[in-house]
Amino acid sequence: MAKFRKVPGYHEISHQYVTFVGYRAFRWEFKVLEHGVLVRKVDIFFIDRSRNGWGVLFQAPAAQWATASPRLQATVATIRLHT
Predict the structure, then answer these.
(1) Which residues pair with 2 in a beta bridge?
(2) Distance between CA 35 and CA 25 in Å, rounded?
(3) What are phi and psi of 45, to 5 degrees?
(4) Are 55 and 43 a contacting pair, CB within 8 Å?
(5) pLDDT confidence tier of residue 66, bands split at 50, 70 and 90
(6) By the 8 A CB rule, do 11 and 31 touch?
(7) Mean pLDDT value across residues 53-79
């Protein structure tokens, strides 16, 4: 997180602890300029019962976020862990 805060074009939208697939997780949402395109991203990090670290990233160009976000969130909602 600290690395991105220094990147030109970075803008943090939010960060908070959430529950994700039944686990305590950290959710970080931000925009960052990549190759001349402003991209909006959501990262979700958590550790499962077996102590495996997981990260889920979904992103889309910021200009397309309103259209892409519902589809991305629906896809992420289908994630299930079988541990």
Answers:
(1) none
(2) 29
(3) -120, 135
(4) yes
(5) very high
(6) yes
(7) 90
Q: So what's the pLDDT on residue 3?
A: 67
Sign of CA dihedral 68, 70, 75, 81: positive
Residues 6+ apart with CB under 8 A from 58: 41, 42, 72, 73, 75, 76
Task: Determine the topology of domain 2-76 in CATH.
Answer: Protein Transport Mog1p; Chain A (3.40.1000)
The domain limits of the chain are 2-76
Q: Give the pLDDT confidence of 22-52 residue by residue, as tens digits.
A: 999 999 999 999 999 999 999 999 999 999 9
- Inter-residue contact 31 to 41 (CB < 8 Å): yes
